[in-house]
Amino acid sequence: MSQQTDQKGNWIFFPLKTNDTRTSSITIIQLVVVLISLCLFLVISGSSFGQQQRFPKPEFETGYTQPSPTTPEPRADFMAWVDVSVLVLVMALAAWFVIKKRSRKGILWLSIFSLAYFGFYREGCVCSVGSIQNIALTLFDSAYAISIPIILFFVLPLIFSLFFGRVFCAAACPLGMIQDLVIIKPISIPVWLRKSLGFLPYIYLGLAVLLAATGSEFIICRYDPFVGIFRRSAEFSMIVLGIAFLLMGLFVARPYCRFLCPYGVLLGWTSRFSKYHMSITPAKCIQCKLCQDSCPFDAIDRPSEQLKPEQKTENKKRFTIYALLIPVWIFIGGFAMSQAHGFLSKAHPDVYMAEMLIKHPELKNDKNNIDIQTFLASEKTMDQLVTEAKLVQTKYYTGSWIFGGFLGLVIGIMLMNQFVTRRRDSFEPNRVGCYSCGRCMKNCPVKK
């Protein structure tokens, strides 16, 4: 598989629009969403014309230079295993502070350490979030070698969340910590908007896996909004993006974690089944309601109301209908996304180069175009390039069906879950959305 590292794919991000201006909080959210959308557009538009490496990947070395994705990772050195050890220690301490000690102060100091170590010292490149792409590329490209530490960075937080909830998010993830420490006056986001934006991480996850599996791009790493801050060196557009997220984080707590992070999707799945999880109260809830507004992430489930028999019957009926419609949603999603496979495949350098030279053959004489000159120096013929581009587009067609089917499945389950009711007699942290930060525990008057 041929790789060009200086070519750019063209991406278009459509800004979200909201029309509800009934409250001041909604107005703030609208402005924030527009700001982030504008920043994303500037970042991606700018990156489409710049000359830089197009396929960064996580590594265990400092500096901003990333190797080619088809080159096996360097053999894990001593520092890689130190990083793994620190990760395990931090998550173990976080679980102890949250579940046993019930100490928000302990979580806070632990998160400061993680931000200093994983963020500014290791420069954000020891990253469980970005490891999704390494795993995807490993599964679909036999020429790519992945180191054991990278695998551990992907697997260990999921294992911990399966037993103790999202303690990785509570104190180990530098992307989450830098946002968590700037929360000043968080506002509560309406349920309808929260659920709508909650679909974005699934899109990001599917797209990241598709691009990594086809050897096109590592978008999670390329558009990491905080890595430029950690490294004190990045494009101006990326610095603006990071600052925009932090400014938004003053009022909308952890915006990246809640509405973009693809690894958070996986952590939410495993945390749902966690055996031990943070609880608001150490004993029986007395329903004093002191904790109901204490979570800046809107992750506290309130006691449920008793449904009438006719409501239960109606919910069961709608649940059954939406469950039967899931295959339909999967087909619609897969078909719709497959129609866009040609556009998505332009992210791959071979496809982009072939299309550009077919439409503009005169560019072969452009001595200032690094990508063109690199292709000509490779002594690859145009027919070979076109053949390879067609093979890549075939992969994208299959991958787009899977990507779209995955999104259709998510939509179907989200619709179905609206009619799932569970008896709840107390205030409880939502196991999927709770970051185990411990903020809500200090509001509970119940003692052990």
Compact overview of the structure:
This protein is 57% helix and 1% strand. The protein has 448 residues and is an all-alpha fold. The chain folds into two domains: 24-285, no CATH class; 305-421, no CATH class.
Anisotropy-based shape: globular
Radius of gyration, CA atoms, in whole angstroms: 23 Å
What does the largest sheet look like?
Answer: 2 strands, antiparallel
- Residues in helices, as a percent range: 55-70%
Strand order of the largest sheet: 1-2
Structural class: mainly alpha
Number of strands: 2
What is the beta-strand fraction? under 5%
N→C terminal distance: 61 Å
Which consecutive residue ranges, at least 5 long each, have pLDDT under 50?
1-72
Order of SSEs: HHHHHHHHHHHHHHEHHHHHHE
Number of domains: 2
Task: Count up the helices.
Answer: 20
Taking all residues together, what is the mean pLDDT? 83
What is the element layout, followed by pairings?
Layout: H1 24-49, H2 78-101, H3 104-121, H4 131-140, H5 148-164, H6 167-171, H7 174-180, H8 191-197, H9 200-213, H10 219-222, H11 227-231, H12 236-249, H13 255-259, H14 262-271, E1 300-301, H15 309-324, H16 326-338, H17 341-344, H18 349-359, H19 370-377, H20 382-417, E2 428-429
Antiparallel strand pairs: 1-2
Helix pairs in contact: 1-12, 2-3, 2-5, 3-7, 4-5, 4-9, 5-14, 9-14, 9-20, 15-20, 16-20, 18-20
3D structure, described in words:
It is a single chain. The protein is mainly alpha-helical. The protein folds into 2 domains: 262 residues, no CATH class; 117 residues, no CATH class. Helix content is 57%, strand content 1%. It is built from 20 helices and 2 strands. Strands 1-2 form a two-stranded antiparallel sheet. The longest helix is centred in the C-terminal third of the chain and has 36 residues. It is globular, with a radius of gyration of 23 Å. The protein starts with 23 loop residues before the first helix and ends in a 19-residue tail after the last strand.
